Amino acid sequence: MESIEKEIKKCKRCELWKTRTNPVVGEGTLSARLLFVGEAPGYYEDLEGRPFVGKAGKVLDELLESAGLQRNEVYIANVLKCRPPDNRNPATDEIRACTSYLDAQLEIIKPEVIATLGNFSLSYIFDKFGLKKDKISKMHGKEFNVSTIPGIKKIIPLYHPAVVTYNPKMKEVLVEDFKALAKYF
Ligand code: URA
Ligand code: SF4
What we know:
alpha/beta
């Protein structure tokens, strides 16, 4: 992971290096059995160089706690390692340029379960494992079995924690999904 970290810190493979303060490699234990994949760093993540430390991060922390999971026993990564300006959506060419880093992280950690947070993460991971996507409203909290990378057994799509900041009712849905997720561990 250290060599990946070094590479990311000097990476100029897409334009986002120009506007980043810090890249966000990811955080957690390399022996994690559960790995979350978010979208991209936001304002505070870019400042601190750590994933999910802003508003969505606060929601994620609450969800982990409600499920009895600790940040230091999982790994948290993102599809993009640098912040898109004004938190705009990741662009296709940026995803193409960046995801070899996420791929490498998955190969190193080989988590039993990958939980996707939000649509960009869902799309990338489902394509990668050859799964067919449906609406998130139908897929959230369900398990999808995979076998193409030894050690990685399940993908579980989740809503992005940021949904709670504009629709507080979604919190309950996420709490239930996180509880179901925690049952695997
Ligand atoms: N949203 C994300 O998708 N990732 C982060 O690291 C922070 C907010
Ligand atoms: Fe490199 Fe990814 Fe940052 Fe683009 S987003 S500069 S590909 S690390």
